[in-house]
Amino acid sequence: MAQNLERFFQKGILVPAIVQEAKTGEVLMLAYMNLESLQKTLETGYTWFWSRSRQELWNKGATSGHLQKVVSITGDCDSDTLLVVVNQTGAACHTGHHSCFFDEIWRDQTI
Asked: 28, 38, 53, 76: which one has the fewest Cβ atoms less than 10 Å from its Cβ?
């Protein structure tokens, strides 16, 4: 099933990975994967990402215990973005929020 992973890295060494909660459909976070972190995710069943700030692999939740058990990984139509559906334990955001997307900037008040 996980064939030709290199196709996701034709445009660069990192690919955006949108992480979505399986039970609710809520978008939890956006992180980046390189080929190695994608392979480690597939091997372990838990999310691994590439930290752009630290320049190293990181296993989401390894120190906090807020693990992400992978349910599915789907590539988009251009093979340049991944959707990672997970069962989230605890908070996904390093601030302690369940989702990284909590800072509402604008909302249409007419709806």
From this structure: 53
**Contact (Cβ atoms closer than 8 angstroms) between residue 60 and residue 68:** yes
Dist. CA 56–CA 37, nearest whole Å: 10
Q: What DSSP string runs through 77-98?
A: TTSS-EEEEEEE-S-SSTTS-S
Q: Are 47 and 70 in contact (CB under 8 A)?
A: yes
CA angle 10, 28, 108 (to 5 degrees): 105
Taking the C-alpha atoms of residue 45 and residue 54, their distance in angstroms, rounded to an integer, is 23
Q: pTM higher than 0.85 for the full model?
A: yes
Q: Which two tokens stand for residue 93?
A: 């955001």
- Measured CA to CA, the distance from residue 34 to residue 20 in angstroms comes to 19
Give the mean model confidence (pLDDT) for residues 10-29: 97
